[in-house]
Amino acid sequence: MEFRKILSPVLAMTALGASSLFAATAYMNQVGFLTKGQKQMAVVGAEGKEIVFKTSSGTEVLKVTAPEAQVWIPAGDTAASLVDFSEIQTEGKYQAYIDDEPIGHPITIGDKALEEAGKASIKFFYFQRASTALEEEYAGVYARAAGHLDTAVKYHPSTGKTDTEATFNGSKGWYDAGDYGKYIVNSGISTYTLLQLYQQNKEYYDTLKLNIPESSNDIPDLLDEIRWNLDWMLTMQDDDGGVFHKLTTKQFAGTIMPEKGTAQRFAIGKGIEASWDFAAVVTLASEIYKPYDPEFAQKCIDAAQKARIWALTHPYEIYEQPSDVGTGTYTGSVEWASKLWTNIEMYRVSGDTSVSSIIKSLPISNKKAVLQSWQNNYMLGIFTIAMSPDAFEAEMVDSATSIITTMADNYVKSLDNNGYGVALAKGDFYWGSNGVAANKGMVLIHAYILTKDEKYLNAALSIVDYILGRNPLDKSYLTGYGVNPVMKPHHRPSQADNIDAPVPGMIAGGPNASATDCAKKYNNPDAVARSYYDNSCSYATNEVAINWNAPFAYVIGSIQAIAATGKSYDIKTPVSAKYELTSIPAARNRIKAAPQASNKRLVLRGKKVQVEYTDRNGIKSYFSIGGKKVR
Hints:
Blueprint: H1 3-16, E1 26-27, E2 33-34, E3 40-43, E4 50-55, E5 60-65, E6 81-84, E7 92-98, E8 101-110, H2 115-127, H3 136-139, E9 153-155, E10 167-168, E11 182-183, H4 184-200, H5 202-205, H6 221-235, E12 244-248, E13 266-270, H7 272-288, H8 294-313, H9 335-348, H10 353-360, H11 378-387, H12 394-413, H13 433-451, H14 454-467, H15 492-496, H16 539-542, H17 546-565, E14 600-605, E15 608-614, E16 620-623, E17 629-630
Parallel strand pairs: 2-8, 9-13
Antiparallel strand pairs: 1-3, 3-6, 4-5, 4-7, 7-8, 9-10, 11-12, 12-13, 14-15, 15-16, 16-17
Helix pairs in contact: 2-17, 4-6, 4-7, 4-17, 7-8, 7-9, 8-9, 9-10, 9-11, 11-12, 12-13, 13-14, 13-17, 14-17
């Protein structure tokens, strides 16, 4: 990837300074629009006025009367007219005018208008690589020394290991977010999302180059990048099959470059959350990588089976943050949803009846549907069933399809009388709201694949438009792209590298109406979409994370791939790898899950029996046998 291209929007912004472009009355995607795709902008104060679109040479190509202004509740009381200019279907540069005065930003239309931004959102993962130097050939001005080799990782006592001086090689992997930790649970959903991006768009990604060190080999670059993280995930499996929860220092590092982080790193904890998520991801990897590296594919399915057996026979092993550890917790995930997801993935590549019996014992219904996140992987399994109808029973496929389209229909319905044309509600603006938006886009893309109904594709495209600038802050939340991009993310390398522009291709967390850090002063309960602070001090609104970048890469990449190839994924594509699973040894099948009484069960935490209560949102709380709530 040419870094001149990546940096040019940022340099342009610097040159413009506080120009009139930053006081736009038209809010729009600042990166580009696909030639044959939907094109919309939100215009404030233009109801009933004529908007004229001209080429860069001044030739008028379209006139549109701004429709009735509508209030989008997250934006507050400022109504906007959603202006559609999809009739322009010729590549080029354009500008919108009212009364001969330009509004908004220059408009770029092209067949590959989203390709560079999509590539950058994947290249972000290269910049997050641990255990390696980033060379100038691939990283440009963001080249840096190797940090966190992780070749001598110690075992924290919470892993159950008795020899705390022993070490193992836990190298590679991606830094999780703005910090330098590596976490299996968050890697789970992030890696799966990128694997699905490839699986559903092979024709496009088989030839797309990202300018990474592996670009000269015969494997698609997207798979090479994912492999860097899979290699690390596989190092996190214990000898008994269980998977360590995370690999971090005991406390977060300061604002330093990776090579300055020399504190001892540990494998911390071991539990069913990490084990289930690990098993699901490496199962899918075992199919996708088989044509390129059969030995690695076999290693993945073997590891998946070991993790699954461990999780089935250790149902009470829930991760609890040790008292001497202060790095990210990733606790409270919905265990049964991860269990369902894993068994769906394993059944897909095996057809094993013992696996299908577990799937049938768990709920597949609209009542359980909730937007995917690291806390709840339910929809990931639903996606897999719907995308592989020949591998599952018809009733199960019908249920999964209904779950996806029902959720997507709700998002589309929310666009009615919506001045910004984006499927986000007031309640969506919490920590990582841009990740929420991108994950909604992922649901919409799946609905489009299943039905070929353009309304879903257009709604997903509107989410891309929102993230790239069609929002009330006129902000492109993708670093390095757009006229007014994020400039000060909470991201240690970008803060410590003495380069003004941040690493490109990162999605900022986005508006968070309940921020408690330095962004608190921008909290606006009446306009939650404005509750944002572009400052590195705000981890609550401006941190970056792999689980926010991955769904954005999925959505923008899928839309560009569909436009480039003229087709979407064929759900009749057969499963390309089949494995015979190892049966669970009788001796290891003795530990049974405690009988569940509705939403309560007994669990063993910190060597004490406690009652685990799960509310209808999947949030867990714990109580002593006597009924006292415990942390």
